[in-house]
Design a protein that fits this description.
Elements (H helix, E strand, L loop, with lengths): L5 H10 L2 E5 L8 H11 L3 E5 L7 E2 L2 E2 L4 H10 L6 E4 L7 H9 L4 E4 L6 H9 L3 E3 L4 H9 L2
Parallel strand pairs: 1-2, 1-5, 5-6, 6-7
Antiparallel strand pairs: 3-4
């Protein structure tokens, strides 16, 4: 389980300031929305990525159709995506892994219940830290409340 290394988790949460939430729902009752709101309340800038909500605003941030489009827009603002936090089914994450590599993010995080070994292997081979089957909100709360 090299994708649940506590040191990698701690480092990603400490060093990431801009987190793209792929699959972020505009619906407040969805887990992705709650996680994103929590992260935002704890000083992270969240970048919504959801093709169905593209062009709208979620939690006060512009929503993008793709990770690549989000990264390009942020680059124009002089910033970058540090961490890609994924709320998609396991069979849908390989293209997101490819985009994560293309935008040179520091980390690739698959939420609770999501594991795709091919995607994990791919990003790790590109030198990107990977976490799977974990929740950024839970892991942040554990480390923040120590």
């Amino acid at each position: 389980m090299h994708y649940q290394d506590p040191d990698v988790i701690t480092k990603l949460l400490a060093e990431s300031r801009v987190i793209a939430i792929v699959g972020l729902s505009p619906k407040e009752d969805r887990p992705s929305h709650g996680v994103a709101a929590y992260l935002q309340q704890h000083g992270y800038r969240i970048i919504p990525v959801n093709p169905a909500a593209a062009g709208t605003h979620i939690l006060g941030e512009h929503c993008y159709a793709t990770l690549t489009m989000a990264a390009a827009a942020l680059q124009e603002q002089g910033t970058r995506i540090d961490l890609v936090d994924v709320f998609r089914k396991a069979d849908q994450v390989e293209p997101i892994a490819d985009e994560t590599i293309a935008i040179h993010a520091r980390g690739f995080w698959l939420q609770l219940g999501i594991v795709n070994q091919e995607a994990i292997d791919k990003v790790q081979a590109a030198g990107i830290a990977a976490v799977a089957d974990r929740c950024t909100k839970i892991d942040h709360a554990i480390r923040h409340n120590r």
